[in-house]
Structures are given as C-alpha cells and as structure tokens.
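EI: anyone free to look at a 368-residue chain?
SC: sure, send it
EI:
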Amino acid sequence: MSYDRCVRCGSCLKICPIFDAMGEEQYSPRGKTYLLQIMDQIEQDPEAAKEFRRLLFMCTMCGRCKETCSSDVDLLAIWHEQRGKSIREHPDEFAYLKPLQEALENVQNIYGLDPEDRAMFWLDELEDEIPGLADKVYEPGKKAEVMVFIGCLMSFRSSQLDVLRALLTTLWKSGTDYLVMGAEEFCCGHPLYLIGNDEGAIELRKHNKAVIEDAGAKKVITCCPGCLIQLKQYHDLGDIEALHHTQFFDMMYDELPTYKAEKPFAYHDPCELHRILEIKKEPRSLMDKMHVDYRDIEPTCCGGGGLLRITDPNLSDIIIQMRAASQHLKDTTVLTCCPSCREQLLSNELKTRDIIELVSEIIEEVGE
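SC: here you go
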C-alpha cells in the first residue's frame, strides 16, 4: 500500500486544517498513516481500532496533504478506501450515516425530500423573473445543447437561491440553449463516494447519464465542484463535456463590463475545484474580465468538505472560525464558487457571494 511510503517528514502537518484545529498528532495525515503502518498492533486493542476508524472521518478530504506529499502517497485514495472498509466491517459505529445512505437510495437526494421538490421550490420563486423558465425543465423528448446539473444543495437550500437565480438569469440573457433536469436529477453520488460507498453511487450515475444523453446535451454544467468530480470522472459521459460554471462563462465572454464594489473582495478557492479538479485559472479569469478588485487568501479548507459537517460539526465550525480569523474575513465579502463553501461561510455569519452573481449583475446593468 502507498501509505508505506510515508517517511513521516511532517510536511503535511503544516497545511492540514484538522491538525491545525486539534493540535495532536493522531489527527494529522502523518499520524493516520503511521497508525495504518502499525495496524496489526492496533487491531489487538478494539478501542484503539475503533478510535482509528473515528479519526478517518475527522477529515475534510481537501487533498492538500496529497498535494504537498514529497513521498507521493495518495492520501485521498487511502482515506477513501479506509472509510469504505470501516463502514462495511463496522456498520454499527456509523449508524449516524445510515439516514443519509437511505435517503440517497430511496429518494435520490441527501435531504430525504420528494424528488419533485428539486424543481418546484426554486421554480415557484423564479419563474416570474426569468421568462420561459418552466419550459426549461427536462421531460423525455426535450433537447438542448447544455444540461444544467444543479445538485442537491442548490436544489433544496433556500440559502442557495441567489446563486441559482444568477446562474439561470445569465443563461437566459446569454441565449444559451439549456435544460435543467428537475425531478429527473438524482444526486451525483459524491456523498457516497466520500464515505467509500462506490457501489451505492452506481445506479445514481447511470440514471443521470441516461437523462443527459436523452436530452442530446453536448455539455453539462454545474456550480458544485463535488458534482463536477462525479460528472467528469465517474459518469462515463463520453464526448459530453462536463464543466464548472466558471469555465463555461469564461469561455462564453471574452470581455465584460467593470464590476464596481465599495471594498475589495477576498477570493476563497474551493478545495475540490482548485486542488482536486485543478480548476484555478477560469474563476480568476472571469473575475479579471470584470476588473474585480480581490485578494487571494490562503488556499486551505473552509471546513465544509469531506462530510465533516455531518461527522463532526463542531470541528467543522472550529476550522472556519480559525480561517476567518487568520485571513481577516470578518470585515470583507468572500467570493467563492462552491455551494458547500457558501453554506459554510454563511453558517458562520460571513458575507459571501458566488462569482456568477457578479456576472449576472453587470449583465443586467448593461441590458445584455
């Protein structure tokens, strides 16, 4: 196993948000890989083995440890494998994850809500603002060049409505030929992937692929980096291009009017977008085309990844509070382009906006 390559150099300690928050070796990537290396001994003590399994889920899966590892240890793959193994072999210890898994199996969304509500909530709110919006909801036989994959979080959380409004308004104003999947959109499977349940995600992916293909889409776009990981790497979409919304609009607009703001923004890179998908240029290119005044902040996790808000919400809050303090975020507006990061920022009373909100505003101002 690749964890045998770990030489315990300690480079991962400096950048791990969990170690930063907890300050003890066992919470660090180095600490966990060492425990794996002596697992034969640990398994002799049931309580120690149980504690190790708990530690596996005290992680945001941000990927920064893998990025910095000079020994080329694929830490994300290790955490993924070990999480799945732990749940399969000790399901009683992870009973708190059972409602999530049952919701995804029964109604194909993380909230356990009626699939019809995927479109109904935001459609009721936005159809008077965006002409023809109701006609943009997929039904068998409808075709479009672009399929919009909204994702569970943006479909069901009212806190995401402003971003969805901006996205759909910009698509309308730009004349894009698009559809949204509505009730036919199933969860992308990323939450199951994060707990190592690859098998559970297969049927979700097959269904989404069939709908996207039936619509004849050439591109599928999403605001959610987690959804994008699944669409790009696991949905087997063939020639259908999966894009983040910042990539899509950066390709669409060669130039944009200047966005004027009273104070500079701070730009927060979503971990899964920046580090795992390596989409770094397009969000900045889009901001630069609007001449947005912003500062880059340390590219570390907000604490909202890896299902940490479910597995250890207190630790998740500590991480964002430390980040807000160290990066001086209390008195600024944080720009980002990830619904999970947005939820994390808003839940800790930090001001935040998605880049697409700025694009939508200036397009409406100039009447494009």
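EI: The radius of gyration is 21 Å.
SC: 👍
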